[in-house]
Amino acid sequence: MSSSHALKWVVIWFLLAMATAGGVFYFAGRQHGIEFLTCYLIEWTLSIDNLFVFLMIFRAFGVDDHRQLRALEWGIIGAIVMRIVFIMLGLALVSLFEPVLYVFGALLIYSAVKMALEKRDQAVDVSHNVLVRWAQKAFRITPGFVGDRFFVRDLQGGLMATPMLLVVLVIESSDIMFAIDSIPAAFAITRQPLIIFVANMLAILGLRSLYFLLAHADRSFRYLRLGVSFILAFVGFKMIVEKVFHVNVYLSLGVVIGTLAISVLASMIPEKAKSS
Fold this sequence. Notes:
This protein is mainly alpha-helical.
């Protein structure tokens, strides 16, 4: 997908999300409208970081552009399933034991610190992935890709897995890790399951075009990860102190938008200009 085509679809998905936000404002009121908009922006920002991980996974396996498209489709399907499962699980946990929100908040702060300390271009080590190790024990792996197939038959009719299966397994495991971050972050903004679900779906469905846009501009968002980590830390702190100090949705939305703007603007400053 060319950068211009990817940009067009990123804009289309974003406008669809904004139209949905307008509908929430009109039919459900300002409070829920702000909650939806904040939740969507957080999930969209986390999705960008997810895509950077996808890019590192593809580089680790040497996946070409055509196969990336196929793997992304499975990754998006997995992300949708994981978000649904974690939303339902989160709702059940909160309804049964509301103090679990403090655990969610601590988890977000831990993820924020870990993300801030990680190197942005750190290579993904796939050899220790649990699903990859299982697949390597369960199947013989072909030495190279066979089109975009997951399984092939050898000359004796035996079943062999291709590296494409390993790629998708690593992507799905990363979907689980990002769902663990994104759903608690959504609960820090709202307890409305429909808002959380729709915001997540709109953020996820635009991932394919957003990925190819980021793949063309990989170096242009070098401070975005720091921005994402700050947002995670903010919503984690908000979740922990909610009973003592209420942070309203307007402030939350302002922090999210402001952090995104600062991280993007800082990324646009040439590195030579900063060092001079």
